[in-house]
């Protein structure tokens, strides 16, 4: 029974670290004790038998896990050209940031089997970065890069998941698991769209190379992933454009027609700046006799001054274009106002600030993320305190000017300011040939939908390429419901299977446009089944 229990767990692809061996042991102990009590077997023989069964159980677990995970032993026999099958298997690698190598090796292996030319740039457990291309990189063809990241965020409380977070279970026509959307689902759609051109590239000298670039460490800043590529391997890659994450198709953007899909292609992103304001003294005291100034009070008051500040509204070009595009699909007075947002923005500042999404797009933001003070008794006045702020700055914002603004707001309080970390400043990618190709592909595949440039509100790897004057566009060309969007970085992350096929179709259509391949050319992909 115990062996059966463990086998079921592994068939569901439970991660080793999620198997509760202590519970298994006590389950076994209770079960056997009941049996032995009925048969009068003494405790000595009971313990010996229990230990043997437990050791055999562990051996069975480890042998099955080794079969599943050791890259030199075996892969499951599967057709990895079936999107949901490939994604299901890819999700089963628990590639939380810091342990990406095994998942990266699996994906690189699939790429080789498909017939792509694989180049591994770094081969560390926490820094596995590779490229898989239609042509060898030394061909020096101008290169269209499909960028994705191997790492995922931790699963959190696994007990809150409907299915185990690294199971890759396909249930109700959805692939479940951490990374199903962010970012393994996108990687699968990118890879299988490139695979559609492998046979053609063998017979025809296409005008571009096309490369899947899979990197590590994106979720924690990209220093062991995209940063390494940008600093050391751009000449070898020879990229002319990068298509990464940062946009998708959504419903509900048009208030007058909530079911009308709008695709946002990110051409810019905010950058992060984290700082701490601190206060301290050599005094402490009793809570019954507070001083006029003490660290907790100074930090709290300074924090309030920053949180109450009303930052200037700035409409950068991609945000202005986004609002105008939304206006085209609205009706009545809203249509007129949105299409002329530059004129009307000053009259709607309160409305704009009250919408969290719009407020983040039109201004620099400051969020109080943590408060600290020295520990002590409840009636003791702490002699040290600090507050941490997460700031997201518009692309053109100068750091020194922004910090000068912050210091002016807190100048009346006895606090100091210290910058903790800042992400790189990257220019906006202009809309043009490569943006238009993606826009046209989306229109060809989805029909009557909206497509607009947007600014991505968080950080991602696209910045490393924009910093090197390579246009980078963030888009996974699928329509995600709000319910699915809300699972990203949360429990029950999952993606509907039909969405994967639509994404492949859109990427393939874009490549057909850029590679100048006629619509009547057969783009057949070979079936890939192996157990090697």
Secondary structure blueprint with pairings:
Layout: H1 2-11, H2 21-39, H3 43-69, E1 78-79, H4 83-91, H5 101-114, E2 117-124, E3 127-133, E4 143-149, E5 170-171, E6 174-176, H6 184-195, H7 198-203, E7 209-215, H8 226-232, H9 234-237, E8 239-250, E9 262-269, E10 271-280, E11 285-286, H10 295-308, H11 317-328, H12 332-339, H13 341-344, H14 349-354, H15 356-362, E12 365-373, E13 380-381, E14 384-393, H16 399-409, E15 416-422, H17 433-446, E16 450-456, H18 462-466, E17 472-480, H19 482-485, E18 494-496, H20 497-514, E19 529-530
Parallel strand pairs: 4-7, 4-8, 8-17, 9-16
Antiparallel strand pairs: 1-19, 2-3, 3-7, 5-6, 6-18, 8-9, 10-14, 10-15, 11-13, 12-14
What does this structure look like?
- The protein is of the alpha+beta class and 532 residues long.
- Helix content is 40%, strand content 22%.
- It has helices at residues 2-11, 21-39, 43-69, 83-91, 101-114, 184-195, 198-203, 226-232, 234-237, 295-308, 317-328, 332-339, 341-344, 349-354, 356-362, 399-409, 433-446, 462-466, 482-485, 497-514; strands spanning 78-79, 117-124, 127-133, 143-149, 170-171, 174-176, 209-215, 239-250, 262-269, 271-280, 285-286, 365-373, 380-381, 384-393, 416-422, 450-456, 472-480, 494-496, 529-530.
- The strands form 5 sheets. Strands 2, 3, 4, 7, 8, 9, 16 and 17 form an 8-stranded mixed beta sheet that branches. The chain has a 4-stranded antiparallel beta sheet with strand order 12-14-10-15, with helices on one face.
- Helix 1 (2-11) runs parallel beside helix 3, helix 4 packs across helix 6 (184-195) and helix 11 runs antiparallel to helix 12.
- The chain is globular and about 85 Å long.
- The two termini are 31 Å apart.
- Residues 1-27 and 57-74 have low confidence and may be disordered.
């Amino acid at each position: 029974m115990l062996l059966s229990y463990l086998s079921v767990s592994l068939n569901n692809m439970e991660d080793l670290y999620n198997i509760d061996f202590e519970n298994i042991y006590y389950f076994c102990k209770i079960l056997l004790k009941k049996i032995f009590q009925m048969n009068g077997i003494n405790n000595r023989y009971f313990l010996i038998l229990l230990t043997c069964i437990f050791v055999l159980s562990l051996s069975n677990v480890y042998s099955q896990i080794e079969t599943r995970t050791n890259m030199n032993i075996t892969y499951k026999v599967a057709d990895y050209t079936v999107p949901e099958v490939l994604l299901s298997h890819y999700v089963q690698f628990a590639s939380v940031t810091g342990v990406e190598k095994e998942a990266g090796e699996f994906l690189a292996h699939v790429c080789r089997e498909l017939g792509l030319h694989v180049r591994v740039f770094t081969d560390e457990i926490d820094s596995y970065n590779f490229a898989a291309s239609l042509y060898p990189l030394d061909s020096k063809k101008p290169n269209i890069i499909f960028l994705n990241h191997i790492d995922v965020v931790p699963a959190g409380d696994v007990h809150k998941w409907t299915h185990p977070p690294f199971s890759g279970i396909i249930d109700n026509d959805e692939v479940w698991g951490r990374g199903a959307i962010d970012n393994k689902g996108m990687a699968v759609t990118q890879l299988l769209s490139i695979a559609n051109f492998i046979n053609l590239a063998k017979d025809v000298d296409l005008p571009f190379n096309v490369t899947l670039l899979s990197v590590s460490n994106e979720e924690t800043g990209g220093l062991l992933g995209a940063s390494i590529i940008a600093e050391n391997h751009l000449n070898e890659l020879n990229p002319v454009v990068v298509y990464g994450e940062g946009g998708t198709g959504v419903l509900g953007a048009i208030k007058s027609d909530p079911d009308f899909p709008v695709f946002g292609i990110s051409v810019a992103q905010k950058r992060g700046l984290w700082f701490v304001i601190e206060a301290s003294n050599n005094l402490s005291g009793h809570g019954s006799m507070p001083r006029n100034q003490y660290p907790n009070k100074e930090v709290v008051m300074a924090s309030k001054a920053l949180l109450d500040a009303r930052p200037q509204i700035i409409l950068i070009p991609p945000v202005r274009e986004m609002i105008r595009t939304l206006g085209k699909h609205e009706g009545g007075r809203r249509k007129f106002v949105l299409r002329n947002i530059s004129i009307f923005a000053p009259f709607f500042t309160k409305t704009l600030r009250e919408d969290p999404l719009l407020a983040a797009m039109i201004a620099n933001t400051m969020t109080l993320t943590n408060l600290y003070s020295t520990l002590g008794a409840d009636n003791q006045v702490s002699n040290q305190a600090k507050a941490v702020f997460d700031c997201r700055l518009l692309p053109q914002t100068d750091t020194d000017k922004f910090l000068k603004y912050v210091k002016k707001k807190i100048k009346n309080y006895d606090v100091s300011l210290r910058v903790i970390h800042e992400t790189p400043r990257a220019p906006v990618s202009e809309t043009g040939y490569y943006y238009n190709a993606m826009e046209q592909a989306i229109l060809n595949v989805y029909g009557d939908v909206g497509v607009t440039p947007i600014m991505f509100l968080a950080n991602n790897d696209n910045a490393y390429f924009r910093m090197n004057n390579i246009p980078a566009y963030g888009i996974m060309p699928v329509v995600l419901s709000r319910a699915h969007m809300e699972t990203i970085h949360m429990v029950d992350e999952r993606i509907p299977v039909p969405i994967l096929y639509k994404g492949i179709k859109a990427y393939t259509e874009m490549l057909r446009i850029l590679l100048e391949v006629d619509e009547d050319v057969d783009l057949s992909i070979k079936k890939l089944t192996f157990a090697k």
